[in-house]
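Figure 3 (text version): structure tokens given as input.
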């Protein structure tokens, strides 16, 4: 091992017995389980539809592909597995996001136990869990949230590989790094942070380190090989989306977005500050319980110098490097792209905590539980009852079940013998209809087979197509959708309230292309599963209807 990583270098750290470590492991597992349950329940009870990104993953999970037109495939594979177990339900998206958050925090816990005592690591992970990326935004299952676990696992494995120089750690680093890349290509930003640390440690020419990097690169390449083959076969399709996403018209606009990006990150990390402020006031009111004196060192000063260096390089580089590149090149930044940049920031709060770690841990636990409860309940009320009462066009109150019931009624009127199997629309509207119709219904995204690889162009439309678009839902129809609209035999317009009477009236422009003679009726279930939604005709529900034969 390197001298900088010798367990006894720097400040000494008293390691607790195995019983304490086991009890803290159990406590951490219980805390993470509680977090997943709290946030999943809060969103499931308050939302009638998933977030936009969650709906996208539900739609993409229709099949296991080696890649999709916007992103690599791993999050959709995860969603596919969850759907096989729990069904295609709204709450599954919230559960999936929180599952990724909890797994990420568990790997952060493993890393923390490497650099400090389990009790101090417990404190840091608890504080970190309140970050919006792990809590509130952890309910949004997208490629950013799904990447959290593989980034924290990579950090833990990289630390072990650099410290202990074991081949297995390097190999696992390559595998997990490959999975991080299969989640989102932005994983390379974290790999750059690893590279910078290797340079800072002057290990770039060290034979043992180079050999380890070689093992990691081999494992990484093998993990990515099938996806790389797919990228070549599709002429690197997702990178066209990435190029468009980064584009900004002017340098001034890019700098303005960079400032907004930075302020957004501060806001999303602010719950950690709230927890610390709560501890600070508590400690001031009862200093005797915390054993604080003028000479009491902070918990952070007890870390080894090498580990402090690791936290600085690996923890700060992702944000600083991204901000610098954006400023120099004038590229656009979106707030959610910073999801994985701050996973180590909770450890920096250790320098602001002084006193008895056991007392600090108990108080931090109480404060963290309180913050999670307030945020979860407040979010549920704001996105559910409050959004409904004010009539806001929030995605959380989108009337997916009602729209699906209306569209299925219209379909059955015109095609009574064949269940609705295919909805051509944007991901959001089409996904809501398919989700509440049944597992046999697929989405033909924007009428594009490139965006809908689960469909066979030769047979997809054999059993008919329901094409729908809505201007009010903020997703204008694409050329493929309009083309299918014109191919329909029947068409019309329906109107459904977004939520309460104060909410906007959604326009549902629809057309039906009937089944052809190749439709294999014997392979189609005879009963449509409407997920227990009200099957009312628009006229019965007081909704406006206009149909064109």
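Below: residues designed for each position.
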């Amino acid at each position: 091992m390197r001298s900088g990583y010798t367990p006894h270098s720097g400040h000494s750290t008293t390691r607790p017995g195995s019983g304490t470590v086991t009890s803290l492991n159990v406590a951490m597992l219980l805390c993470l389980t509680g977090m997943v349950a709290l946030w999943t329940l809060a969103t499931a009870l308050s939302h009638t539809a998933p977030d936009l990104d969650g709906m996208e993953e539900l739609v993409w999970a229709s099949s296991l592909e080696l890649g999709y037109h916007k992103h690599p495939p791993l999050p959709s594979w995860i969603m596919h597995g969850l759907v096989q177990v729990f069904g295609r339900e709204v709450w599954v998206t919230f559960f999936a996001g929180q599952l990724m958050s909890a797994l990420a925090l568990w790997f952060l816990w493993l890393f923390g136990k490497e650099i400090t005592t389990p009790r101090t690591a417990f404190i840091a992970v608890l504080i970190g869990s309140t970050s919006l990326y792990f809590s509130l935004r952890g309910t949004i299952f997208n490629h950013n949230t799904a990447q959290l676990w593989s980034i924290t696992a990579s950090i833990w494995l990289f630390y072990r590989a650099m410290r202990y120089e074991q081949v297995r750690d390097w190999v696992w680093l390559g595998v997990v790094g490959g999975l991080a890349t299969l989640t989102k290509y932005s994983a390379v930003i974290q790999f750059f942070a690893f590279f910078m640390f290797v340079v800072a440690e002057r290990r770039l020419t060290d034979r043992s380190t180079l050999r380890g990097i070689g093992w990691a690169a081999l494992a990484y390449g093998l993990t990515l090989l099938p996806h790389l083959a797919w990228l070549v076969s599709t002429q690197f399709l997702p990178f066209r989306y990435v190029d468009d996403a980064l584009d900004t018209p002017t340098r001034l606009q890019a700098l303005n977005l960079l400032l907004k990006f930075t302020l957004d990150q501060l806001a999303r990390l602010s719950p950690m500050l709230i927890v610390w402020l709560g501890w600070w006031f508590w400690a001031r009111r009862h200093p005797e319980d915390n054993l604080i004196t003028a000479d009491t060192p902070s918990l952070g000063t007890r870390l080894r110098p090498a580990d402090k260096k690791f936290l600085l390089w690996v923890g700060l580089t992702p944000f600083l490097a991204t901000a610098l590149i954006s400023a120099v090149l004038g590229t656009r930044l979106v707030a959610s792209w910073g999801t994985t940049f701050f996973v180590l920031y909770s450890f920096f709060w250790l320098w602001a905590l002084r006193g008895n770690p056991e007392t600090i841990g108990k108080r931090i636990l109480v404060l963290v539980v309180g913050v999670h409860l307030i945020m979860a309940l407040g979010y549920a009320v704001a996105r559910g009852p409050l959004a409904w009462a004010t009539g806001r066009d929030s995605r959380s109150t989108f009337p997916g079940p009602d729209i699906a019931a209306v569209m299925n009624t219209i379909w059955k009127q015109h095609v009574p013998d064949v269940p609705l199997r295919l909805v051509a629309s944007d991901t959001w509207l089409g996904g809501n209809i398919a989700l509440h119709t049944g597992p046999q219904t697929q989405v033909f995204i924007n009428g594009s087979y490139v965006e809908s690889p689960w469909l066979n162009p030769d047979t997809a439309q054999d059993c008919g197509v329901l094409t729908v678009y809505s201007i009010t839902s903020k997703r204008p129809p694409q050329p493929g959708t309009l083309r299918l609209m014109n191919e329909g035999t029947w068409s019309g317009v329906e109107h459904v309230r977004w939520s309460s009477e104060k909410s906007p009236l959604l326009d549902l422009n629809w057309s039906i292309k009937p089944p052809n003679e190749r439709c294999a009726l014997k392979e189609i279930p005879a009963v449509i599963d409407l997920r227990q939604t009200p099957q009312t005709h628009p006229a019965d529900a007081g909704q406006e209807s206009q149909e064109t034969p």
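The first strand starts at residue 422 and ends at 425.
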